[in-house]
Design a protein that fits this description.
The structure holds two protein chains of two kinds.
Chain A: H1 17-37, E1 44-47, H2 50-65, E2 71-75, H3 80-91, E3 95-99, H4 109-115, E4 120-124, H5 138-146, E5 151-155, H6 167-170, E6 174-178, E7 189-193, H7 219-257, E8 261-263, E9 274-279, H8 284-293, H9 303-306, H10 313-317, H11 322-326, E10 328-332, H12 339-359
Parallel strand pairs in A: 2-3, 2-4, 4-5, 5-6
Antiparallel strand pairs in A: 1-7, 6-7, 8-9, 9-10
Helix pairs in contact in A: 1-7, 2-3, 4-5, 7-12, 8-12
Chain B: H1 4-11, E1 24-30, E2 35-44, E3 47-56, H2 59-72, H3 77-81, H4 85-91, H5 97-102, H6 106-121
Antiparallel strand pairs in B: 1-2, 2-3
Classes of the chains: A alpha/beta, B alpha+beta.
């Protein structure tokens, strides 16, 4: 990446040698990203990240197909990049069906089928949930949508690099991904758009990215994303197995050491790197602060961490009570984590929970 | 996001627990909202000789509970009633805007405990305001 901020500083749209070198870097990255998901390079549009990719996919299809219909099907557990885009489109005259999920956070293909209408133009369901790690049955959803001629978008920001993805096998028409979820740089991502699927741009300007995304390319970011995609493809299988083992050890360790704790999300059909538990009678943010003091970075679906008064929309859609959602704790494992890291968390978390429970008027239940 | 003072009170909270046979009890919030505070007080000659808290909630909820007990312990009831959620937040060096309303209930819990004491002392049906603070949130 650094070379593309110094010696290869050219604008990839320029004709001169510096520009051509930058163009070469961008196009090689496009090939690497395409290869990671089984796409052709011409089907990859670089964006500023997963959020922009989701916006471009949904608004791009909505605008392109509004003459055919104005109905979109999505789920209640999508990332806000999808949910808020859909809510925006509702204000613009589109109608949106937000599908419910079961207690594991799974969307059912039959619910998708039942929601399809004659004026449905797009189904957008995430590949894997960012909070609870549940992997959605995208191939089945594609099948029911395809039988009605409806396009399918999937936000695969959490799944790319964590599980093997082949857009041909899945059959999706659009797929969003992000650099920093595959150990690449922040501020860069991509949208896969199947050849022949027409989207209208959200940003207008020059003819960059085949007219789908105007603006001079973030060359260092794109090159970094390309390299990350290349490494993800090479290392995914071996690192996934290792991370999955650590995940299960951490989940089992927490559930066995802490009374009144439970797993959120699907027990097996989940991302290899995701741990999400609810620890009752403790508030999530208080746990995060305590863990942070011990050098452990975690997050929570508690209202206190969201800046609003509502706990996580994902956990509540799964049927968790507010009390239990407030006590949720998410930890994400990565390539660099070790057995020792898991042991360390398992040694510091129970005393944190005990301290907070002892402080609570809800009683000493632990 | 939190001041050092908030983190200090969160890490080493003062006066945690529950007084046995308290002279007054004040509880605010509810677990559905993510915050629940309970204050118990002991009063002698019009002074708060002891105060303890129990809180289920975020860092701000715990820190505000802790500092309010420190601020009023040994004070007269009149002095204690002058403590407000705002002065509690100020004593902590400020709170993030999102926390000012939702987790800053400690003074309400204190006022409620004092009012509980006053109504017990004055006998029932004294007309003492039980809802001082008026901060309780529904869900």
């Amino acid at each position: 990446m650094v070379r593309y901020m110094t010696e290869i500083y050219g604008n990839p749209s320029s004709v001169h040698a510096f520009g051509r070198m930058a163009r070469k870097g961008v196009e090689e990255a496009r090939e690497s990203v395409a290869a990671l998901i089984g796409a052709s390079p011409g089907e990859i549009i670089f964006t500023s990240g997963g959020t922009e990719a989701d916006n471009l996919a949904i608004k791009g299809i909505a605008e392109s197909l509004s003459h055919k219909g104005k109905h979109i099907v999505t789920s209640k557990v999508e990332h806000h990049a999808v949910l808020h885009t859909c809510e925006y489109l509702e204000k613009k005259g589109f109608s949106v069906t937000y599908l419910p999920v079961d207690k594991y956070g799974s969307v059912s293909a039959s619910d998708v089928e039942a929601a399809l209408r004659d004026d449905t133009i797009l189904v957008s369901v995430m590949m894997a949930n960012n909070e609870v790690g549940t992997i959605q049955p995208i191939a089945e959803i594609v099948q029911v949508a395809k039988s009605r001629g409806v396009l399918v978008h999937t936000d695969a920001v959490q799944a790319v690099g964590a599980v093997r993805i082949d857009v041909e096998e899945l059959g999706v028409d659009l797929l969003s991904l992000s650099g920093h979820k595959i150990y690449g740089p922040k501020g860069v991502g991509a949208l896969y758009v199947r050849k022949g699927v027409k989207i209208l741009p959200v940003a207008h300007g020059g003819g960059h990215e085949r007219g789908k995304r105007a603006g001079t390319e973030n060359v260092p970011g794109i090159v970094g994303l390309g390299k990350a995609a290349e490494l993800a493809k090479e290392e995914m299988d071996s690192s996934s197995e290792k991370i999955k083992h650590l995940r299960d050890k951490l989940i089992e360790g927490i559930l066995s050491r802490i009374e009144h704790s439970r797993l959120n999300g699907h027990p097996t059909n989940r991302l290899p790197n995701n741990v999400n538990v609810s620890i009752e009678y403790v508030e999530g943010e208080a746990m995060l602060l305590s863990l942070d003091q011990q050098g452990v970075a975690a997050s929570s679906g508690s209202a206190c961490t969201s800046g609003s008064l509502e706990p996580s929309h994902v956990l509540t859609a799964m049927g968790l009570s507010h009390e239990v959602a407030h006590g949720s704790l998410r930890m994400t494992l990565g390539r660099q984590n070790t057995e020792e890291d898991v042991d360390y968390v398992l040694s510091v978390l129970p005393p944190i929970v005990e301290r907070l429970r002892n402080m609570s008027p809800l009683g000493k239940r632990g | 996001m939190y001041s050092e003072k908030v983190m200090e009170h969160f890490t080493n909270p003062r006066n945690v627990g529950e007084i046995k046979d308290p002279d007054g009890i004040g509880q605010v919030g509810n677990p559905v909202c993510g915050d629940l505070m309970k204050m118990t007080i002991k009063v002698e000659d019009g002074r708060l000789v002891d105060i303890k808290f129990q809180t289920f909630g975020c860092g701000a909820a715990i820190a505000t509970s802790s500092i309010v007990t420190e601020m009023v312990k040994g004070k007269t009831l009149e002095e204690a009633l002058k403590v407000t959620n705002r002065t509690v937040a100020e004593a902590l060096g400020g709170l993030p805007p999102a926390k000012m309303h939702c987790s800053n209930l400690a003074a309400d819990a204190l006022h409620r405990a004092i009012n509980d004491y006053l109504s017990r002392k004055g006998g029932s049906g004294d007309g003492q305001d039980q809802s001082a603070g008026g901060h309780e949130r529904g869900s």
